[in-house]
From TrEMBL, chain A:
Residues 34-133 form the Histidine kinase/HSP90-like ATPase domain. It comes from Sporosarcina luteola. It comes from the Bacteria. InterPro entries: HATPase_C_sf, HATPase_dom. GO terms for molecular function: kinase activity. This is Serine/threonine-protein kinase RsbT. Keywords: Kinase, Transferase.
From TrEMBL, chain B:
Signal peptide: none annotated. It comes from Sporosarcina luteola. The gene is rsbU. This is Phosphoserine phosphatase RsbU. InterPro entries: Bact_Sigma-Reg, KaiA/RbsU_helical_domain_sf, PPM-type-like_dom_sf, PPM-type_phosphatase-like_dom, PSer_Pase_RsbU_N. The keyword Acetylation does not apply. It comes from the Bacteria. Keywords: Hydrolase. Residues 121-331 form the PPM-type phosphatase domain.
Length: 133, 336
């Protein structure tokens, strides 16, 4: 019964499409303006990472329920080079893009739950969930 | 979102919108501390503001409300940066606690016993510039003789401090060996060369006082010369001996020299934190160190060391730019 939709990330414009999808879903799920912006930013960062480091991949957005709670789950997956040192990318102050990216710790902070599975040479799957409080 | 905070914010802003008074701005600013205390993110502050405005002035145009949404979007990364900052500060506090423990461990590991030899008065000051000391003093005490190693690891802080423990264990292994300054430096040099990173060098002065014939023999591995004060003539001479820094070459050879000590004579061994004391006018001169030592030549060795430390540290407002170490060997007269 879970509603699910996705955007393939191939060009930079797909990042915008993923953001749009995320914001619409967050709104429909009943999140307020600030949380909508947070969910959208998380999607934006994850999609950007795919675009910059894996070349292509996919963002899926799913409505989830758990024990009476409602929320939104983002799944970002790619078949890219994977993350060599997971501990390092989860550290504050570490951003490979050298830019102003929020990085993994940023995405983790924007959401309530965060999980990353990565295998060097095979790809990365990041799952992040935010619950309606 | 704590709704109570939102309500209070609205009341304070309402008053200001009516009064435009400095007093209400002051109240508002005091109130803003609560946002910080409660760790309310900047984007949430804007949301609180927007909610308050909708209640106070619902007649405003849509562009105004949309602009707040835009501003919220703008603030998300600010909020993240702020939280990252807070977490880095907590991390730093944790590192500081570890450093404090490490410093205590260092002090325990590197503890050395001041020598007790008839006729020899010893004074020592060693102050780190940062938390961990890169200068190292080690005394070796024998029957009627006392030796001291004054070492300076080029570089400061933690790497230098880690290096110290290696020297210490090298020296401990020496005790039954031939403890002539030349031999000691050759052995320590081999240990350092083998086990220390290529980028780390150590200078060391090794001096040995023999109470039997009141002779001070010494060798130096690229270290600052020591100063010998002749009480009879009231003059200083530099004690220097040829030798490479430790850790440069495995088979380095060290020159050994010696000097006789008369009653009232003293020898001051130091690191470059003493000789390269920097004041606003630049580095101090060697003569200045001699003058300061001469002022207190009649004091016990420890007072002399304390005196020169306070004089030179005072010149730098007690903000040392390098680790500061001085050891004084004084041939006692009636006092000892």
């Amino acid at each position: 019964m879970n509603y699910r939709s996705s955007v393939d990330i191939i060009t930079e414009w797909d990042i915008v499409a993923a953001r749009q999808l995320g914001r619409n879903e967050a709104k429909k799920a009943g999140f307020g303006t600030v949380d909508q912006a947070r969910i959208t930013t998380a999607i934006s960062e994850l999609a950007r990472n795919i675009y910059l480091y894996a070349g292509k991949g996919r963002i899926e957005i799913e409505r989830v329920t758990d024990d009476g709670m409602f929320g939104i789950k983002i799944v970002a997956s790619d078949d890219g080079p994977g993350i060599q040192d997971l501990r390092k990318v989860m550290e504050d102050g570490y951003t490979t893009s050298g830019g102003l990216g929020a990085g993994m710790p940023g995405v983790k902070r924007l959401m309530d739950e965060f999980k990353v599975i990565s295998e060097p040479g095979k790809g990365t799957t990041i799952t992040a969930t935010k619950w309606l409080h | 979102m704590p709704q109570e905070v939102g309500r209070q914010y609205k009341e304070i802003m309402k008053k200001y919108l009516e009064s435009h008074s400095e007093e209400d701005l002051y109240v508002g600013q005091q109130f803003s501390r609560r946002f910080i205390e409660k760790e309310i993110a900047p984007e949430d502050v804007i949301s609180i503001h927007k909610t308050a405005m909708i209640e106070l002035h619902p007649e405003l145009r849509n562009e105004v409300w949309d602009s707040f949404d835009f501003l919220i979007e703008m603030m998300i990364h600010y909020g993240l940066t702020l939280r990252e900052h807070q977490s880095l500060i907590r991390k730093q506090e944790a590192i500081q606690i570890e450093m404090d423990v490490a410093t205590k461990v260092q002090d325990t590991i590197l503890k050395t016993k001041m020598p007790i030899v008839d006729g020899l008065d010893v004074g020592l000051v060693s102050q780190p510039a940062r938390q961990m000391n890169g200068d190292y003093i080690y005394f070796l005490n024998g029957q009627n003789e006392s030796s001291v190693a004054v070492a300076d690891v080029i570089g400061k802080g933690i790497p230098a401090a880690l290096c110290m423990s290696m020297i210490k264990y090298g020296m401990d292994g020496l005790e039954n060996d031939n403890s002539n300054p030349r031999n000691v430096l050759e052995i320590i040099n081999r240990i350092v060369e083998k086990s220390v990173d290529d980028s780390m060098f150590i200078s060391m002065f090794y001096g040995k006082y023999d109470g039997e014939n009141a002779t001070f023999s010494y060798a130096s591995a690229g270290h600052e010369p020591a100063l010998h004060f002749n009480a009879k003539t009231g003059t200083f001479s530099e004690l220097d001996a040829k030798g490479l820094l430790l850790g440069v070459k495995t088979d380095a050879v060290y020159e050994e020299r010696s000097v006789m000590m008369q009653d009232g004579d003293f020898i001051a061994m130091m690191t470059d934190g003493v000789t390269e004391t920097r004041t606003e006018e630049g580095f101090i001169e060697m003569e200045m160190i001699q003058e300061i030592l001469a002022e207190v030549q009649d004091e016990p060795a420890q007072q002399m060391a304390d005196h020169i430390y306070h004089k030179l540290a005072g010149l730098q407002n007690y903000r040392l730019s390098d680790d500061f170490t001085i050891v004084i060997f004084k041939k006692g007269t009636e006092k000892v």
